[in-house]
Amino acid sequence: MTKYTTPAPTTSAVLTLALALAGGSAMAATSAIAGPPAWVATWQASPQPIWGADFLFPVNVPPVLHNQTVRQVARISLGGQRLRIVLSNTYGSQPLTVGKATVAQPKQGGEVVAGSLRTVTFGGREGASIFPGASLVSDAVALPMPALAQVAVSLYLPNATPMSTFHWDGRQTGWIAPGDQSTTLALTQRDDAAIQSTTARPLLTGIQVETEQSARAVAVIGDSITDGATATLDKDSRWPDFLAARLAPHGVAVVNAGISGARLLSDGMGVNALARLDRDVLGQPGVRSVIVMLGINDISWPGTAFAREARRPTLDDLTAGYRQLVEQAHSHGVRVIGTTLTPFEGALPGTPLDNYYRPDKDALRRQVNDWIRHSGVFDAVIDFDAVLRDPLHPARIAARYDSGDHLHPGDEGNRAMAEAVDLAALLPGLDTSRGDVVPKIPRER
């Protein structure tokens, strides 16, 4: 059984209790704090730097986009009457020009719904520049969207635009079309220039919605298990997606700050967790709690093709990193929920990373898990190891939850992880009497 530990009430929990005693309803006291309309993060794709051609994985985007339109689809968690998008040039060395941007309700195959298309402006203008190392937040767009709806975002890039900032594993099909097709309902080939598909996410890093009251958000910072590496493409079946479906009825958003290959202490396919905590978690509007699922790549990358000469961190190294992350989050009033690291015996067979698992690495994982469960450093603990492991062979993921690579859970495993989250431990005082809904996953045949 999954266990949670909850320490003394935090400041936010005391405030919640005070609001309830003052006569406010449980929902008003927990899911929203009364006040004027406010913005909350409802979707995220953490930015990563583009890597070189000598890395193990292809980047899945052209090195330069020029006179092309990128159309991406994202499923938001909370809805609202207005939204705005966030673009990023975090790892760029020169300004990038966005010639035009639109949002719309998507249909199949890159098409959007007629009548739903809206032009996005930046400071009242259709075009904008994103400076090196910076992000760009759009003006508000009147496009009412319910919770768990999909949004299509189209960006026209008129100039030569080097791809330096992206999110590698979007688990969603996007399209790169020739010319300015930002206002086109169905993307078309032009002058023998084909439409390309991609599962990466160039430039688009966030969507925010305006809510009638100040809503709360939960961020999940993690690695490929959180990013959804083996979740079914285009089905929104990562474990944070299922968690978002559970929390939406309670007026709580979920943003996924997972990066495949992410580590707690070291850079990899993205910067280390402590370096990106402000950007990906603490700087996201409305975030009140963060779930931390990191450490397995710190343990297992050293000695593999990813990091042949790297030193494996010690238990003290890892626990110091967790402590620092918790301290920084607490300094911003954000509650921190730790998770145990899941089983991975036999991980990634038949790949260049087939030495990702070793018994001594698993011994360190079990030591880390013991510390996470019993240290009291976290505000609460989710025991994902207990959720996913095979009871008869606890070093392995149970077959019904295994994607097949013995490291990442499949869709059923992702759903089990989301169902194991105690919402009251995640956000103390949350009224869970209304229940929640987790979409069913079609069983594999």
TrEMBL record:
The keyword Cytoplasm is annotated on this UniProt entry: no
Signal peptide: 1-28
Keywords tagged on the record: Signal
Pfam families membership: Lipase_GDSL (PF00657)
InterPro entries: GDSL (IPR001087), GDSL_Rv0518-like (IPR053140), SGNH_hydro_sf (IPR036514)
Keyword Calcium: no
Gene Ontology terms for molecular function: hydrolase activity, acting on ester bonds
UniProt protein name: Lipase
Originating species: Achromobacter aloeverae
Lineage of producing organism: Bacteria, Pseudomonadati, Pseudomonadota, Betaproteobacteria, Burkholderiales
